[in-house]
Amino acid sequence: LGTGLWNAQSQIVFRRVSRAQLGPAGMDAAFFRERLRMALKRRELAGATRPARRLVWSESDGLPGLVVDQYGGVLVLQALTLGMAQRQETVVEVLKEVLEPEVILGRNDAPVREHEGLPREVETLHGTVPAAVALSLDGLDWELDLRGGHKTGFYLDQLDNYAALARIVRARGVQRVLDVFCNQGGFALAAARAGARQVEAVDQSAEAIARAKANAQRNGLEIAWSVDNAFDHLRRLEEAGRRYELVVLDPPSFARGKKQVEAALRGYKELHLRAIRLLEPGGYLGTFCCSHHVSGLDWRELCGNVAADTGVSLLMVERLPQPPDHPVLVEVPETEYLQGYVLEKN
Question: Is 289 noted as a catalytic residue in this protein?
Answer without folding.
Answer: no
